[in-house]
Amino acid sequence: MMGGHQVHWLPLGLVTLLALLGMWLNQLTHRPVVVDNGGFAHEPDTIVKNFNALAFDREGRPLHRLSATRLVHYMDDDTTELDSPRFSVLARDRVRSEVTARRGQVSSNGQHVHLLGDVRLSRLGPGDQAPLTLETEYLWIIPDAGIMQTHKPVTLKQGRAVIMAGNLLVNDPNKEVTLSGGVHGSYAKTH
């Protein structure tokens, strides 16, 4: 050994290896996490309390109204959620009706309304006829087309008449109501 200095390579190599490992781990913890969501988190960008929107036809006459106790819009998937929504048909050429539910969703283009939970529709009967009520758990509405549809069990009541079905399609412009899926009903005669 020259000059009396002894070099201990093993401890020096271990310290260098530990230092390199520490630097590598430090780099891993500081790298940004890549999430493929277009840069948006699923957080509301708009919240409106006591929301109320009115749609008009080309001549400026009211067509329908959509209101809710709360509206929440999410930018990442362009969805809109409604609490306690109320949809009202106001057009003069359609039967006046009102639909309520526990919650709802509106499509990104506003063309489709989905009502969910304790859905109730009420329509005024013509003349002195009793109002018509509908109860279901889901109702899909296409407001501008005057279409309402459900694939869930539905109960229709008018006066003493009760009709139950598995599916319903209402086409207001054509004045058509289609019931399917185990349709049955009862009618109590008045004396």
How would you characterize the overall build of this protein?
The N and C termini lie far apart (125 Å). The chain has a 6-stranded antiparallel β-barrel with strand order 2-3-6-7-5-4. The protein has 1 helix and 14 strands; from the N terminus they run αββββββββββββββ. The chain has one helix spanning 9-29; strands at 44-56, 62-74, 79-83, 86-89, 97-100, 103-106, 113-123, 132-142, 147-150, 154-158, 161-165, 167-171, 176-180, 184-187. The protein is elongated and about 110 Å long. Strand 4 and strand 5 form a beta hairpin.
SSE diagram, text form:
Blueprint: H1 9-29, E1 44-56, E2 62-74, E3 79-83, E4 86-89, E5 97-100, E6 103-106, E7 113-123, E8 132-142, E9 147-150, E10 154-158, E11 161-165, E12 167-171, E13 176-180, E14 184-187
Antiparallel strand pairs: 1-2, 2-3, 2-4, 3-6, 4-5, 5-7, 6-7, 7-8, 8-9, 8-10, 9-12, 10-11, 11-14, 12-13
In summary, what is this structure?
This protein has 191 residues and is mainly beta. 11% of the residues lie in helices and 49% in strands. The protein has one helix and 14 strands; from the N terminus they run H-E-E-E-E-E-E-E-E-E-E-E-E-E-E.
